[in-house]
Write a structure and sequence with these properties.
Chain B: It comes from Nonomuraea africana. Chain B: This is Multiple sugar transport system substrate-binding protein. Chain B: It holds the Pfam family SBP_bac_1. The complex is a heterodimer of chains A (306) and B (452). Chain A is mostly helical. Helix content of chain A is 72%, strand content 0%. The longest helix of chain A is centred in the first third of the chain and has 33 residues. Chain B has 452 residues and is of the alpha/beta class. Helices cover 44% and strands 17% of the residues of chain B. Chain B contains 21 helices and 16 strands. Chain B has a six-stranded mixed β-sheet with strand order 2-1-3-13-4-14. Chain B has a four-stranded mixed β-sheet with strand order 6-9-5-10. The longest helix of chain B has 19 residues. The N terminus of chain B is likely disordered. Classes of the chains: A mainly alpha (306), B alpha/beta (452). Chains A and B meet through helix 1 and helix 7 of A and helix 1, helix 3, helix 4 and helix 20 of B.
Chain lengths: 306, 452
């Protein structure tokens, strides 16, 4: 088995790049092959089909379902002139920022920070409660929040009010429910990250006279910044695609007051049977998700270089 | 390395084979007919009817198995599930319970089998189904695509105690829309705590909002229609349309209807049936013939007193124009998939499911009007339900939806307009204008729209 090494490519400064030989390619391709093929069939396939359908007038039933036609970018033109889509887009933004970036992320970090140095009992109890919310299925979580916020629900009974929260403040309701459900994930990520922060660094900062706030800001957070970015990326993507919780809690209503883009997509594709238009929405969602990931990945890279 | 490659390929082949191999459902010699239907906890009647039919059928048809596949949920969930299963010949059920307004879209998609040849071999079709009922699932090509299980009419239910308390006459006979609104206003004034009037007017209620709500108004205006039969065009808005929306607007802006949260509640029908009417918390409901079935002894929450407490009357036309009343009719059919391999056996099951006994079970349970003459004539049919004659007679003033291929989409636009007016986000004029604007895109071009 011969291994050839080539000269460093002129584009790359510094470390030499080893271009793998054909044998080398086979060495990683063969074991990966089955997985790659399965991914191609079950992931890339549907995505490509979705891309194709997004440029047709395909419907679930009716004459367009048997002879659908290529309509170019008509679906996208319609999409960006559709007030309901723009509304759903704004709501998705509010939902992602409110429940994931601010809510789950901050709350998860706070809980993880507060848990440092606590007794085992406290940690188990808090962990247990927070994670319990995470492991229940989406629909169960939605039912819990429904019974909490309903007119004869727990909240109104405790406060002595008669307020239909899911009608008067649907976005607040779904954002709260999603924070409640998703915080555990961020908490676990941050607990793991915080346990990697060397205690002597924090102690040294304390000896130098840094208060708790400064220690957090200048020692702890910079050390876990990569976990923060990774966590933000994961929960952003999860929340962007969130469907079940909102669907079960408010159904996107009243009207379109909590209809985020995934719900709008479902309504168009599966309620009004406009599968082509729904696919166009899905494609736009895909691009937005990809953009978010790119931004986060770039931020992580920037951190690495710095 | 080569061995590793061969190993991976083998593993892949096994995996692919496992994915590709379909469980062959039909055992040697046996045939299976899959029947898709809808069931809800408060609505078990269809399941009972089909369960009975399965027993009867299998005892007389050895070698054929009926597989009953229920869909849990409301009508909208059922439409979606059916449309998705129908995408492929492999997953499409052989027979299905089908809402008549969806029939033409499925005919256009080639998913339904015409039944004319098979119906010709079935004596009951000529003897027991009235001509008007036979049209329920007629395609644009004039062929019949389903056997009617039931039909229905719509009108007003009202609570006599509430009317007495408000000083309104019983029996109540409103002649115009204004009479209805005046009664509602009186109830609001004289019977505080009672919801004066309820109707379905939001997207969550789907076709119920379009049909029980909007169309009951529109078809009661002079010349009001969604579709101009003479010119074969969809009617875009206009005064009739705006007037119908104005009625909805008046109900909610004057707070004559349920609270907005309830108007948007998926369980509004259950509230009307099981909470508000029995507790005398509701004055008038614009709803369907089947409502009283919720109170019969076989229902989940029987309310025997309904026969004394509840009255019924036709929905009047806008200003009392002839014929003085309006009603809308729809209904459900048993339809056959064009993909089915066993047309004869499947059709035989339809004839068993819609025979006299099974139709009776369904009609008495659901409160829907019987499609068959022998069921309608049977004293058992009306024994428990004093309102049934009234609802049956409404057929003389009833209208049918323009159930063309584009209708489901038109209906969705109407729901948008109604919901906007219900919540107050648009005025009736704005909502009607938006409907007129959206219509060409929905029905396939401006040449299919008649501007008003």
């Amino acid at each position: 088995m011969t291994v050839t090494t080539t000269a460093p490519s002129p584009r790359v400064t510094g470390s030499p790049v080893r271009r793998p030989s054909r044998r080398g390619v086979l060495r990683w391709l063969v074991p990966l092959g089955p997985a790659l093929l399965l991914m191609a069939i079950f992931m890339a396939g549907p995505i490509l089909w979705n891309v194709y359908i997004a440029f047709t007038n395909e419907t679930l039933t009716g004459s367009a379902s048997v002879n659908s036609q290529f309509v170019g970018v008509a679906n996208f033109v319609r999409l960006f002139g559709d007030a309901n889509f723009l509304n759903s887009f704004a709501l998705t933004f509010v939902f992602v920022i409110g429940s994931a970036v601010i809510g789950q992320n901050t709350l998860g970090l706070i809980i993880a920070l507060l848990q440092r140095g606590r007794g085992r009992v406290t940690r188990s109890v808090v962990n247990g409660v927070v994670i319990a919310a995470w492991v229940v299925p989406e629909v169960v979580a939605a039912v819990c929040w429904f019974s909490f916020l309903a007119e004869e629900g727990t909240l109104n009974t405790v406060l002595g009010l008669s307020q239909e929260w899911l009608y008067t403040a649907p976005m607040v309701a779904v954002v709260l429910a999603n924070i409640w459900r998703g915080t555990a994930f961020s908490m676990l990520v941050y607990s793991a990250a915080l346990s990697e922060v060397p205690a002597d660094l924090v102690e040294a900062a304390a000896v130098d006279g840094a208060g708790p706030w400064r220690r957090l800001l200048h020692v702890t957070l910079p050390l876990i910044r990569r976990s923060i970015m990774a966590n933000l990326m994961l929960i952003t993507l999860q929340t962007l695609a969130s469907f079940g919780l909102i669907y079960a809690l408010t159904g996107g209503g009243p009207g379109t007051a909590s209809q985020t883009t995934p719900l709008y997509m479902y309504e168009q594709a599966f309620r009004y049977f406009e599968i082509g238009y729904g696919s166009a929405i899905a494609l736009v969602m895909l691009v937005i998700g990809a953009l978010f990931s790119l931004v986060y990945l770039r931020l992580i890279k920037v951190e690495d270089v710095a | 390395m080569r061995r590793a490659l061969a190993g991976s390929l083998l593993a892949l082949a096994v995996a692919a084979a496992a994915c590709g191999a379909e469980p062959e459902q039909e055992s040697a010699g046996g045939k299976e007919i899959e029947v898709l239907y809808k069931v809800e906890p408060t609505w078990p009647h269809l399941e009972k009817m089909l369960g009975d039919a399965k027993k009867q059928y299998e005892s007389t048809h050895p070698g054929v198995t009926i597989k009953l596949t229920p869909v849990q949920g409301n009508n909208e969930a059922y439409y979606t599930k059916l449309a998705l299963l129908n995408r492929s010949a492999d997953s499409a059920p052989d027979l299905y319970y089908h809402d008549t307004f969806q029939v033409n879209a499925d005919v256009a998609a080639g998913k339904l089998a015409p039944l004319d040849d098979l119906l010709a071999t079935w004596p009951d079709w000529q003897a027991q189904f009235p001509d008007s009922v036979k049209q329920a699932a007629k395609g644009g090509d004039g062929k019949i695509y389903g056997v009617p299980i039931s039909t229905d009419t719509r009108g007003l239910w009202y609570h006599k105690d509430v009317f007495a308390k408000a000083g309104l006459p019983v029996p109540w006979e409103p002649k115009t829309w204004n009479d209805v609104l005046t009664a509602a206003r009186t109830i609001k004034q004289k019977a505080p705590g009672v919801i004066p009037f309820s109707m379905y007017s939001t997207k969550i209620h789907g076709e119920a909002a379009t049909m029980q709500g909007f169309e009951m108004l529109l078809y009661g205006t002079p010349g009001g229609t969604l579709y101009d039969d003479a010119q074969k065009k969809w009617v875009a808005g206009g005064k009739n349309f705006t007037d119908a929306l104005t009625f909805v607007n008046t109900v909610y802006r004057e707070e004559l209807g349920p609270k907005l949260a309830d108007a948007h509640n998926a369980k509004l029908a259950q509230k009307i049936l099981y909470e508000w009417f029995p507790a005398a918390k509701l004055g008038i409901a614009l709803d369907g013939a089947w409502v009283s079935a919720g109170w019969t002894p076989t229902s989940t929450q029987p309310w025997p007193e309904w026969k004394d407490k509840i009255g019924w009357t036709p929905m009047p036309t806008q200003n009392g124009e002839a014929p003085g009343a309006v009603s809308m009719s729809g209904g459900w059919v048993m339809a056959m998939s064009s993909y089915t391999k066993h047309k004869r056996e499947a059709f035989d099951f339809i004839t068993v499911a819609t025979n006299k006994d099974n139709s009776m079970t369904y009609s008495v349970g659901t409160g829907d009007l019987a499609a068959r003459k022998d069921v309608a004539a049977d004293p058992k049919y009306s024994a428990e339900n004093p309102s049934i004659k009234f609802w049956t007679d409404l057929a003389s003033v009833t209208h049918y939806r323009p159930a063309y291929e584009a209708y489901p989409k038109v209906s969705a636009q109407i729901q948008e307009a109604m919901e906007a007016v219900t919540s107050g986000s648009k005025s009736p004029e704005e909502a009607a204008a938006d409907y007129a604007k959206a219509l060409p895109g929905v029905v396939g071009g401006a040449d299919k729209v008649l501007a008003r």
